[in-house]
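Standup notes, structure subgroup. Blocker cleared on the iron/sulfur cluster input:
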Amino acid sequence: MTNTDAIVTVDNLKMHFPIYRGVIRRRVGAVHAVDGVSFQVKKGETLGLVGESGCGKSTTGRTILQLYKPTAGKVYFKDTELTGLKSEQMRLMRREMQMIFQDPYASLNPRMTVRDIIGEPLVSFGIASGKQIDERVADLLKLVRLNPDYIGRYPHEFSGGQRQRIGIARALAMNPSFIVCDEPISALDVSIQAQVVNLLEELQAEFGLTYLFIAHDLSMVRHISDRVAVMYLGIIVELTDRNELYRNPLHPYTQALLSAIPIADPVFSAARRRQVLEGDVPSPVNPPSGCRFRTRCPIAGPICAEKQPEWREVGPNHYVACHKV
Amino acid sequence: MVDHLLSVQDLETQFKTPEGIVHAVNGVSFDLAEGETLGVVGESGCGKSVTMLSVMRLVQCPPGKIVAGKAMFHGKDLLQLNSEDIRAVRGGQISMVFQDPMTSLNPVMTIGDQLAEPLMLHLNMTKEQANKRSVELLGLVGIPRAEERLKDYPHQYSGGMRQRVMIAMALSCNPQILIADEPTTALDVTIQAQIVELVKRLREELGMAIIWITHDLGVVAGLAQRVIVMYGGFIIEEAEVKELYANPRHPYTLGLIGSLPKIHEESRTKLYSIEGMPPVLYRKPTSCPFAPRCAWVMERCWNENPVLESLNPNHRVACYADTTNGSKHA
Ligand SMILES: Nc1ncnc2c1ncn2[C@@H]1O[C@H](COP(=O)(O)OP(=O)(O)OP(=O)(O)O)[C@@H](O)[C@H]1O
Ligand SMILES: Nc1ncnc2c1ncn2[C@@H]1O[C@H](COP(=O)(O)OP(=O)(O)OP(=O)(O)O)[C@@H](O)[C@H]1O
Ligand code: SF4
Ligand code: SF4
Ligand SMILES: [Mg+2]
Ligand SMILES: [Mg+2]
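Run returned:
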């Protein structure tokens, strides 16, 4: 399953969150947040992960980093199987793998200064101490285009875009090779989003970083990704190169998602025919049998209720799970 | 000269806070024609909501205060109406939909009762008539099995369905103007598309004018006929929708449109980014509010604040530079 140019390999990963009820906290079911996904992230690439709220994007990212213990499946980082590591071994691996969070307001401890926030991993891994920390933090601040004089300030003294830069600086402190970016721009104003995206791209070019970029803004994902995976209700339904995905989407859900993107071009908007999906996403507690998309799929047939479609390579590097493709 | 349904002139609204006076809206003027859809865009805090809340007289006072301006609607200034008259306008001729439907719906009242209430209050319907109309309204906004679903409480509806209910409520008294404040921002793209298509259909069927507030330039492009761009409590550009996207003139609008990834982008190009931060509104600016972030800024911009001027009948802009001749300093 491992591959030389893959930095992360995910093999049939599942993450179910148990639901308990009643006084004796009886287990009554589980949220099938991630329900069997397999993919690889190649060294130096940006893999985009898109899908609607609740489809399991963040859970996938967190489970890869072993922030949750997976229900089933394996995750490899280079040649090491993370899912088999002891916690101390995993702690050491964590230097190589970092995460940037969606909410720049909630993800920084309000009582810590910028020095402590960014320097914390340096201290906990015993990599730097005393003045060295200040120097390294100042360097990191410059790297994310913040004034190094801000080192003693607290998060509330910064704007959303600046806080997101602090989050990025913290993620970069350990010289990681892989970063899960979980909706890093969703909470930011339009004019600030481009600043952060440009920064992420510059850092990637400079340090050869590999990104898993989670988002629901499909136009931004197209911009930043080399390949894109589309998720629906806990599974990946399509994965291919960015241009191929946007030019030639094969899964009915991808097609609907692309046709739902608002496009900032009135002439184009007026001309295009939108395919609007009916209904809502079903509950991940009892996902539909067979193909999970069948309750909203415009071309579903009898087989779709009976059998879960296989994950197949239907063209060069173009993977899709649908009976009708 | 077209007759305007709503004409807002020189509106100014401020908030008194412990840190000082927030100049949220600084002399905003715009017109709305009958049946027209007007988009209002700009980043967080630029005054979109406060502008419309002022027109509806829903700004909380204190700390808020409408310090100047007029909002003419059918020969009357909404800003001068007594509280009873403005309430009648709000429930009837002009209605509003907000971003977060959960905070605007009463969690302990059934959807049916919430729909029926304004009908009985404003249209003097009986309980029975109101119920019948409620079923029709839910059907109108595409909620299946309407009769049963009237008995549900808001938490039993999904986010998209709650927003449909809000729209049904806003339409219940046949308004002439529907003001929608970021009604789809909290929703997923596929649900957002459902709501936008719904509003387009209702607009055709019912013919109301719409003011659609959003920070999403994509949504506006597909829905509005005319667009207002706000920055720091001012309107800095206004144009017919195709004109605005094809020929943006204000440096801020240029930046906003340029910072979006291109639709048919095949190879990665660097996004244009507007440097700096949105403005702080504690002083009413005597210079151009965009000057600290502007790549075209010149001496004059620091001394005077440009007013909106017409480039042509379909396009107004507040800027001293000619951004079409490429004499950018940066
Ligand atoms: N710690 C948890 N305990 C129980 N359920 C969870 C937990 N984390 C996530 N879930 C559930 O798992 C599902 C997937 O959630 P997840 O946060 O991964 O979605 P997402 O795709 O990141 O959505 P969003 O776009 O809203 O961030 C959801 O139904 C969510 O409610
Ligand atoms: N109750 C209040 N007290 C103090 N300041 C306020 C109050 N309400 C609004 N403001 C300020 O008025 C300005 C305009 O706010 P407004 O809500 O109109 O912005 P907006 O353009 O709607 O932004 P968003 O996109 O975030 O909704 C902001 O600077 C805001 O902080
Ligand atoms: S497998 Fe069937 S239901 Fe699923 S996407 Fe394909 S056609 Fe639709
Ligand atoms: S008036 Fe001056 S500062 Fe303001 S937007 Fe135009 S060029 Fe820039
Ligand atoms: Mg998430
Ligand atoms: Mg607002």
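Discussed briefly. The longest strand of chain B covers residues 4-17.
Next: hand off to the docking folks.
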